[in-house]
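To fix ideas, we quote verbatim a fold written out as tokens:
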Amino acid sequence: MPVPQNLNIVPFVSVENMMDLVLATGVETFLKELAVYIEEDFRRWESFDKRPRVASHSPDGVIELMPTSDGRLYGFKYVNGHPKNTRTGRQTVTAFGVLSDVDSGYPVLLTEMTILTALRTAATSAVAAKYLAPRNARTMALIGNGAQSEFQALAFKALLGVEQLRLYDIDRAASERCARNLSPLGLQIAVCASAEEAVEGAEIITTATADKQNATILTDNMIGPGVHINAVGGDCPGKTELHRDILLRSDIFVEYPPQTRIEGEIQQLAPDHAVTELWQVISGELIGRREAQQITLFDSVGFATEDFSALRYVRDKLAASDHFEKLDLLADPDEPRDLFGMLLRRQALISAV
């Protein structure tokens, strides 16, 4: 089924469509293919229009818009973050996104991005770890076993060959759920009784907790030399996961400093504290991991180019897929200036029925 060409029709990927597209592709294959798009766009970082996301904060959470453009396509994501939602049976994070043609301004894709954001966040984590994690790392601690956890585990398995997973969450049921979901998928899994136990022997440590507060998930004494830390949970002002002393011992890598200094772990540090931009490492301008004893930290807050990559990837996948709906989204009058005439013709059609 080809992507629709009618000017009023925009391909719409619903949650059901997205699940079917991911399953038809295979979750690990989807993550690997998506990672290629993310890496490609980091390599052409300087071609993007970049700005911190537009955020509306409240005591209960945040609603954000994340726009960017490469001059040919424009993309944005609407996303929220409300940790209290779990108490009412709702998702902490929900999202949808739009990809548009810059030349005409017409949208060319509308898609759910709750599932897609989980996939792109995991794929970005694994892309960063390709350049920052110890060579041949096979064991990852995953602290915070919420909605993101399985995706993170599978991305590191698919892209880095991680084999062993050590889980910890303050809610042991969350860890047990994560273990059940992942157990048929080729990982050796241990559910741990504490964060300290989880990080024992781990070469990669991923933190992905949801509480909207300055927390100390990892303390300095828990981090030995040579570890790579993938800090995912700190993603808004006043929300961090790592003790400040860990940051001072680490080489820190970020997506977009003006955003990360507001929202990431480095909000704990001086505004001029040295960090390295991930695109510089991926493009080969700078080196990521230089030596075995180096502690590397990817201070991941999520950036609009990663959503752009995900939108671009999904649009390309639809060219050989029927996992979308034809959404009558745009007014398309017979004569472009006669929008009111289109309304009158609709009235006549209704009256004739």
About this structure: The two ends are 32 Å apart (CA to CA).
